[in-house]
Amino acid sequence: MRNIWLILRREYLERVRTKSFIVSTLLLPAVMIALMVLPSKLAMLKASGTRRLAVVCANADFARAVQSQLEAKKRDGDQLDSSPRYQVEIVSTPNEAARATLKGRISTGTLDAYLWLSDDALASRKISYVARETSDFIETETLHRALRSALLRREFLVRGISSDEADKLMRGVDLNAVTIKGGQEKRAGGPLQFISAIVLVMMLYMTLILYGVAVMRSVLEEKTSRVMEVVLSSATAQELMAGKILGVGAVGLTQIAAWVILGLGATTPGLLAARSQLAEINLSPAALPAFAVFFVLGFLLYSALYAALGAMVNSEQEAQQWQFLVIMPIIIPIMMMTYVLRQPNAPLSMWMSLVPFFAPILMYIRVVVQTPPMWQIGVCIALLLLTLWGVVALCSRIYRVGILMYGKKPTLPEIVKWVRYA
Question: I need a surface site. Which of 24, 298, 303, 328 has the fewest CB within 10 A?
Fold first, then answer.
């Protein structure tokens, strides 16, 4: 144990004291938040200025209805609304001369766009939107909603339904999802719960890969520098492997703890303002403890594989060629993430989440979205521990021989010989 502790302490302090660790711990959360938030914020930015739009329609009442729909948001003055503001003019003569005139105005810049609402276009529900630029999908959706609303209102009026009654019929519906568990009602988490689950799972996925690769590189660096020959004179291969895995794992937990503290510090001033949004997340009480459990078990499992890989190869190039064997069991649960998020209690979700190499991600998703029965979590952890014991025993044999092998590319028969020899 003393040798394991010394190696663990060296691996931990060597990484924590580096500038790169400090910078990544402070900078990475900001970059992650920017990558998640900035694209959506930019996409939802309110269009600058007012769009000049002509509505070409022989039916004056319908043209005014479309005008009212498009200018309604402008009158509301909603600062959070990203849809464009319109200045609408009505052209009551949908003929070729009017079309040519409107095209000329668009070319000269005195008009931004026009909607062609001739009788034939309305009858066939095939309406043309002509503009200098048509790539703004938010604007296209705004026009689509306005036209659909105006057409529905016209149909209601034709059938003798008043404007007030039409407003009631077209009003949206709030759907409150409630889960029955243990005979008690529990409000579902909504979209924010799924988003939070994805964020936590991606954190788990990235840390498993990043720190697993760190273990592999640490082994590879010391192997190529022949430091191993000196270290093995005072510590066994198993102690060396355990110390490296635990030391790098402690670095990972330290960094995650720092991110959690920074996140809490950043959000505490705005907790009251964001109380309604946080309530919608509705995470299970087991979510955070489960994150620590599955991170530790998943890290130990994959770090043992990475340590064995680092001992087998002789260079970074060889490591990259073999690395897919370790990464594939991590990629498969990421590919299944959407299915498990939507159907956490489906038979496929249950059985796949019990597979030890998939469990750190898939079982964690189930815990976050809808906590499975405790016996399933217990079986999952037991299988993980059993698999971890077997993998560590196997990888330590490969590690013991591989760290002293130089210049020989690993092959499957050669690795089998190492396991038998060790």
Answer: 328
Parts of the chain belonging to CATH 3.40.190: 51-167
236 is written with which tokens? 């066994």
Mean predicted confidence (pLDDT) in 41-59 = 73
- 8-state DSSP, 40: H
Residue 112 φ/ψ, nearest 5 degrees: -90, -40
> Which H/E stretch holds residue 131?
strand 128-131
DSSP state of 89: E
Sequence-distant (6+) residues with CB within 8 A of 68 are: none
CA 230 to mean position of chain CA atoms = 44
Whether the pTM exceeds 0.85: the reply is no
Task: Report the candidate in 354, 246, 251 with the shortest Cα–Cα distance to residue 304.
Answer: 246
User: Smallest Cα–Cα separation from 327: which of 194, 216, 196?
Assistant: 216
CATH class of 51-167: alpha beta
Kindly report, residue by residue over 179-203, the tens digit of the pLDDT.
666 556 655 555 556 666 677 677 7
Residue 231: is its pLDDT beyond 60? yes
Please, what sign has the CA dihedral across residues 300, 383, 200, 324?
positive
